[in-house]
Every structure is written in structure tokens, then in C-alpha cells.
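Data availability excerpt. The first of two example chains:
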Amino acid sequence: MLNENIKAIRRSKGLSQQELAVKLNVVRQTVSKWEQGLSVPDADLLLALSEALETPVSTLLGETVTESEADEVKALAEKLEVINLQFARRKALRRSVLHWGFISVCVGILAVAFILAMAGSPYLGWDYSAPETAVMGVAIHAFEWGFVRLAPFVLIAAAAGVFLTRKRRG
């Protein structure tokens, strides 16, 4: 009887086992065991359960409580609506972050290419007689060499990402 009442009242309040467990500072499996009749809450937890479900202890211990079918459907519909809205927002945020990330990559690649084009190839006129500047010249040459070979592929992939993550109308 107690197990059925806990389950019925929890559902009528629109709470999941996890949500009720969090309110009571217990694990979800504890609530599940109560609802299956495998265990019962102790006196302190019974009082806390009564407060969490906003139901008198006598009702929890009393006759079987029947949950209202309409209330259950309404609570479920409201929960699903909230969950769907959260998923939609999360998906839109993720898409926006990806979109702007791809745009940033494109702008960065174009900016570096512009800087390299304006500077020419500075390592060609570098003074290689000093060891410090020779290392810097080699590093700049290695960067430019790698950039020229990889940047076109990354730019194409990022441009495709911008296209695929754009906001669709309608």
C-alpha cells in the first residue's frame, strides 16, 4: 500500500524517481525499492517524503491513492514540452557555436595568408650568420611551408562547415 501510494503521488506531482531522490538526498534506486515494495523508508525519511510530496504521512500510509489520468497526461506533456524546448535550445546553441567557429577558422586562415603575402617570404632575406636568427628563419620557413600546404584543405573544410551549419529558413 505504501509503495503504491508513493508511486501514485510522485507521478501525480510530475516527479521522476531521480527528482524525488534528489529532494530526499537518497539515490534513485532507494526510491525504486520503495515503489517496488522491496524496502520502506525509515521514520525520518517518511517525514521528508511527506514534505517532498506535499502529502500528509497518513495519506502515504493510508488507503491506496489513485492517480488522476488527466493529471498524469498533463504533467507528462508539460515535462516533454520542457525537455523538447531544452533540446532545441541546446541544438541551436551548438549549431551557432560551430557556425561561428568555422567562420573564425576561415577568417584566421585568410588573415594569415594575407600577412604572409604582404610580408613576402621573410626567411629568404634572413641573416643566417647568427644562430638565434637562423633558428627563427627556419621556424618561419617551416610554418609558411606547412601553412601553404594545409591551409587550402582546412579552408575548404571550414567553408563547407559554414555552409552546413547555417541557420535554415522556415
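And the second chain:
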Amino acid sequence: MIEPTMTATPERRNYQTATFLISAPTLAKCPSDRGVEIAFAGRSNAGKSSAINALTQQRALARTSKTPGRTQLINFFTLQNDEQLRLVDLPGYGYAKVPEAMKKEWQAHLADYLHRRRSLAGLILLMDVRHPLSDFDIQLLEMADDRELPVHILLTKSDKLKQGPAKASLQQVKQRLAEWEDLVSVQLFSALKRQGLDQAYSVMDRWLAR
């Protein structure tokens, strides 16, 4: 299992500069496939929007809701006023109270994006530390493996567990993902307590510097 590195990267990006660019319902409506981007994916109750807001040090860049599953489009954000540097908020999955047909449509667009988007440098996959590795989490990892796309897992809401159980969950995830050790790294993360930001930044900086 790759360990998140804390070493300096060629350039530390200013994630506070993230601004909304566009929302796209399908791959065809996405911005031009140039430059480099990092995508965020996860179950609708995994704290994806909260993590994006914590990483960009903004309160409402990504919409949060008491009703999980509200993100139904592929949302793009630019960094440093440069449309060639982007963060991407992908539709949540597995929890939203929507018709099954709509869930399948979201999943089809998600798969299309992950397989075909050439500017995608890496995937941040968010999982609740108390409920990691759902069936669809595994499907996403398999999709990433198909195109040798690096994945960094944030085990979110780590503040909900004491230190011992949180570390135990981290070790269990590492052990279960040993087969993907060349592409996958994992860490504990808490948006509420702002824990794990530097580790995540280190990975993201490296991907954006490709």
C-alpha cells in the first residue's frame, strides 16, 4: 500500500483559490479535456462536500445538505484562476432517495467519466471510516485499476472514532486493498477537526504537477 508522502512537491497549489466553473450532466458537456484535474467520489453520506470545502478552506464551494445525494451533476472548479487546473465533484452514489433508474444513469455517467477523461490525474475516494469499502467503492477501484488511475482514499469522519478504532479501520482497509498497492494510498481524515489536510494536499500537489 502506498503511503501518503509528506515531502515537498514541485509546487504547492493554493486550493483556497478554487472557484466554480461549470456543472455538466454528461461527459459530452464537460469542459475541454485538456490540462489536469482531480476528481472526488464517494457515497452520498461519506462527507464528500464537507471534505472539498475543508480542503479549499471555503464554507460552501461544494454544496452540503442534510439530504445526502443532492449532487446530481459533474461539478468543475478551477484553481488559481487557471481553467487547466481543476477539481471535480462527482455525483454521490448508493444513498440518495431517488428512483433506481436515475441511480443507474448517474453510475453510467460516472463510469464514462472515469474511463474516458484523459485529463483526470487521480481520484480522491471518500469513505466513512466506520463503513468503508462498500460494493460500489470496490467497483470504483476496479474502474480506476482498469486505466491505471491512482486513487487516494480519505477515511472521513475519523473524529467519530477514538484513536485506536480509527487506526484499526485504517489498517483493515490497507490489508483489504493490498492487491492495489501500486495505485492506492489511504489516510484518516476529518473535515470537522481539519485533520489530515496536509497529507491530502501532498498527494494532490503531486498529481497536479504531472
